[in-house]
Amino acid sequence: MTDAHEEAGEAARWWATAVSHIEPGSIELRDRPVQDLIGTAGLVDIIWLMLRAGLPTPRESSLLEAALVAGVDHGPQAPSIAAARMAATCGVGLNNAVATGVNMLGDAHGGAGQQCVEMLTDIRDLYASRGSWQQAAQEVMADWQSRSRYLPGFGHRFHPVDPRRDPLIGLVRQAVRDNVVGGDFLHAALAVEAILERRRAGARPVPMNIDGATAVIYAELGFSAPLARGLFVLSRSVGILAHAWEESGQGRRNKGPIPRSVLPARLPQPKDA
């Protein structure tokens, strides 16, 4: 019997977690009985609770919700959504279609928010010794652009000005004025934007995009850079689900990337064939 108790204790320690506790007749999320949360806490509050082990203030919850709403969808041309729509016609089921879309969210498509939080954090840290947001931003930008031509969170391949930028940054500005957040990451992002505007005077602007604006919010609220990507995945999965569900009701089978009607009758052959 002692051996059995020791094995049970070892198994319990193996799966020990502070996230939830389940016993017969009892479900606790971060030590809070689920029945106390049902009807009193919103979904965004629960996301915060599960990730941060506490509940947000109403203003923090509202700011996080704004970021999540802004990233929900960007049309069927987005690779994650296109992949989910095609998967939905292949007989794999709705959950598999959503998983297909979510699994498309990588460094190039879906990772810019995480990368932007990392860049803004570098600027914030350097500001402590430079005493100038512009100087700190210039140095960090130079380092980032020595490795990549792209600055995460700035510019958009489709929108000259991302329509989500202004309302999100406006909410952050108000939150700073009301002492809800500190404002360091906002200052860092605006410094980058100002430098890019001066560099590209007369050319196509490279303003902050959705990844940059939400990165500011996630960082100001204290979420780590990897969680910025995780939160974006939660947000975009809503749009992925909606598109997969719509596609599943349209009766197509094995949908490809282009309509069959425009497929060439014969694929072009190599010149040396």
UniProtKB/TrEMBL annotation:
Highest taxon in the source lineage: Bacteria
Stretches the record annotates as Disordered: 249-273
EC number: 2.3.3.16
GO terms of biological process kind: carbohydrate metabolic process; tricarboxylic acid cycle
GO cellular component terms, A-Z: cytosol
Coiled coil: none
NCBIfam families: PRK06224.1-1
Protein name, as recorded: citrate synthase (unknown stereospecificity)
